[in-house]
C-alpha cells in the first residue's frame, strides 16, 4: 500500500530555521529556480516551510484544512508549498490531478520517500510501493482465486481474537485490539505463524516503530526515532531467524513450497534469475506487516461509525445475520459469503472516504513538464491528497453525510475515491485488506452492540487517522434473536 508518513521532524528543523531566520525571506526562491510560471503558492518559513501548519491541522483532526485553504486561495488544480523539509512541493488536486500522477508513473514521475523513512525501512518501502514488481513476483498471493483460500483462515483467527481479547470484558479499547487482529492475520498469511504468543513478540516493536516514525528524526539514544530504528532491527532479526529455519524446513521437505508468502519468496527468482537474500526478504516482510496495519485504522473507524449510526449498524447486522443463518454449526466463512457482504463493504468504503487510513503520498518529477498551464521543474516533489476529492461536493454531494449508497452501482467517478491510491502503484493489498475488514465486521456484529465511552473523542492524523484515546467502547452482548 502507498504509505504516507507525516513526521514530527518539524521540531528539529524549527530550531534550525530560527537560527537562520534573519538570513532569508519567507518568500525565498524555490531551489533557486528563476522560472516565473511555477504553480501559485508560498513556501513559508525558511527550512521549515509550511510544515507546522501541515502537521498541526492533522493533529487537530482536520488535515483537509491545509488543502482546502490553498485550493481556495491559489488554485483548485495545483499549488506550491514547502513541507517535510522539501523547498519545492507541488500539490496536485482533484480527480484530474490524481489521474495525471497515477497515469504518469515512471514516465514523468516516480515514487519518493523522505530519507528518515528509508532509514527505518531500507528497501521494503521501495519494494511495496513498486506494485508492478509485487504483482509479478507474487501472482499466487494477489489474485482473487488465491484470496479465496484466506477467508476461512481469517475467520478462524477472528474467532480466536474475539475469544481471547473481547469475551468476558465489559469495556475494551478498539484500536490496539484491531492492530493485534491484523498483525495476527499478516503473520499467518506471510509466515504461517498463528501461535498468539509468537505473534505477540512483534506487538511492542511495531508499536515503537509506529511512534518513532512520526517523531523528530533525531537518531540519539533514548529518542523515539532511535527506538524505532532499534525496533525495526529487532523485528528483522527475528524475521531472519524465521527465514533461516524455513530454508532448512524446505530443504528437508518439512514445509510446503506453497504454504505462505515466505516459502514463495525463498523459491522464486527475480528477473535476473537470482534468489533474494535473507535480509532482503526479512526487510520486505517487515514492510508488508507494517503496511497491513492501515487496515486496523479502517476497522477502528468502522466500529466508531457503527456506534454513532444505529440505523447503519442495523443494516450491517441484518446482512451479516442472513449470511450466518445459511452456515452449518462451526462452518467458516467462504468466498461466496464475502461476495454477499455488499452493503457491509459499501459501509467500509464510506468510512474510508471520511476517515482514510492514509492521507496521500509523494512523487518526484523525473523531468520538467507542464500541468494546468504551470511549469513543474525536474526534481520537484509532488503530492496528492485524498482530501482534494473525498470531501468535495462536486464528487460527493453532501460530503459530510455518511451515505454508503454512494458506492452502489458504478460508484464514485474515477480517481475521486483513492484510499488505496491508483494507477500502477495502487496498493497491491487492497483485496487482502477487504477480506480482513469484512471478516472482522461479520464477527463483531454477530457478537456485540457497543457504545462509545468518549462521545467527543478527538481524532488525530499522524501516520494514519486514529481516535486520540484508541476508541474505548462499552460492549453489549448481542441478543440470541438478532
Explain what you see.
- The protein has helices spanning 10-20, 51-59, 64-73, 94-103, 115-120, 124-129, 131-137, 139-142, 144-147, 150-165, 174-191, 196-200, 203-213, 224-251, 261-267, 278-291, 294-308, 310-325, 335-339, 342-354, 430-447; strands at 78-83, 86-92, 109-111, 171-173, 360-365, 369-371, 374-376, 381-385, 448-452, 459-461, 465-467, 472-477.
- With 482 residues, it is of the alpha+beta class.
- It has a five-stranded mixed β-sheet with strand order 1-2-8-5-3.
- A hairpin with a 2-residue loop joins strand 1 (78-83) and strand 2 (86-92).
- Helix 17 packs parallel to helix 21.
- It is globular and about 70 Å long.
Sum up the structure in keywords.
single chain, 482 residues, alpha+beta, 3-stranded antiparallel β-sheet, 12 strands, 11% strand
Amino acid at each position: 500500500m502507498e504509505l504516507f508518513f507525516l513526521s514530527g521532524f518539524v521540531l528539529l528543523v524549527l530550531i534550525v530555521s530560527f537560527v537562520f531566520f534573519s538570513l532569508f525571506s519567507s518568500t525565498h526562491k524555490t531551489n533557486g529556480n528563476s522560472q516565473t510560471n511555477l504553480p501559485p503558492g508560498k513556501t513559508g518559513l525558511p527550512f521549515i516551510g509550511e510544515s507546522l501548519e501541515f502537521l498541526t491541522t492533522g493533529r487537530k483532526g482536520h488535515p483537509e484544512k491545509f488543502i482546502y485553504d490553498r485550493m481556495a486561495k491559489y488554485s483548485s488544480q495545483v499549488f506550491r508549498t514547502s513541507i517535510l523539509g522539501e523547498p519545492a512541493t507541488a500539490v496536485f488536486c482533484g480527480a484530474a490531478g490524481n489521474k495525471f500522477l497515477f497515469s504518469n508513473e515512471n514516465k514523468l514521475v516516480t515514487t519518493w520517500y523522505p530519507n528518515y523513512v528509508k532509514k527505518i525501512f531500507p528497501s521494503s518501502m521501495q519494494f511495496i510501493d513498486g506494485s508492478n514488481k509485487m504483482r509479478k513476483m507474487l501472482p499466487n498471493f494477489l489474485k482473487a482465486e488465491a484470496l479465496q483460500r484466506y477467508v476461512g483462515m481469517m475467520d478462524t483467527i477472528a474467532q480466536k481474537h474475539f475469544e481471547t481479547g473481547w469475551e468476558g470484558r465489559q469495556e475494551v479499547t478498539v484500536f490496539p485490539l484491531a492492530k493485534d487482529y491484523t498483525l495476527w492475520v499478516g503473520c499467518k498469511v506471510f509466515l504461517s505463524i498463528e501461535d498468539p504468543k509468537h505473534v505477540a513478540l512483534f506487538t511492542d516493536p511495531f508499536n515503537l516503530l509506529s511512534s518513532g516514525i512520526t517523531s523528530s528524526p533525531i537518531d540519539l539514544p533514548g529518542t523515539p526515532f532511535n527506538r524505532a530504528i532499534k525496533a525495526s532491527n529487532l523485528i528483522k532479526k527475528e524475521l531472519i531467524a524465521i527465514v533461516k529455519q524455513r530454508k532448512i524446513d524446505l530443504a528437508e521437505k518439512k514445509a510446503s513450497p506453497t504454504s505462505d508468502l515466505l516459502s514463495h519468496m525463498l523459491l522464486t527468482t527475480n528477473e535476473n534469475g537470482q534468489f533474494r537474500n535473507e535480509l532482503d526478504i526479512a526487510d520486505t516482510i517487515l514492510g508488508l506487516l507494517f503496511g497491513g496495519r492501515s487496515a486496523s485504522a479502517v476497522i477502528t473507524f468502522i466500529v466508531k461509525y457503527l456506534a454513532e449510526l444505529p440505523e447503519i449498524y442495523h443494516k450491517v447486522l441484518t446482512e451479516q445475520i442472513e449470511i450466518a443463518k445459511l452456515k452449518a454449526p462451526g462452518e467458516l466463512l467462504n468466498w461466496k459469503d464475502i461476495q454477499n457482504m455488499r452493503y457491509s463493504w459499501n459501509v467500509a468504503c464510506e468510512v474510508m472516504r471520511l476517515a482514510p487510513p492514509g492521507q496521500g503520498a509523494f512523487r518526484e518529477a523525473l523531468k520538467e513538464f507542464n500541468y494546468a498551464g504551470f511549469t513543474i521543474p525536474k526534481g520537484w516533489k509532488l503530492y496528492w491528497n485524498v482530501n482534494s476529492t473525498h470531501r468535495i461536493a462536486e464528487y460527493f454531494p453532501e460530503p459530510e453525510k455518511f451515505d454508503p449508497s454512494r458506492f452502489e452501482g458504478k460508484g464514485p467517478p474515477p480517481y475521486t475515491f483513492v484510499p488505496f491510491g491508483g494507477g500502477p502503484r495502487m496498493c497491491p493489498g487492497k483485496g487482502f485488506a477487504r477480506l480482513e475488514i469484512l471478516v472482522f465486521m461479520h464477527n463483531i456484529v454477530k457478537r456485540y452492540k457497543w457504545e462509545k465511552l468518549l462521545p467527543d473523542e478527538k481524532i488525530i492524523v499522524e501516520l494514519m487517522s486514529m481516535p486520540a484515546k484508541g476508541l474505548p467502547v462499552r460492549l453489549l452482548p448481542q441478543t440470541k434473536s438478532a
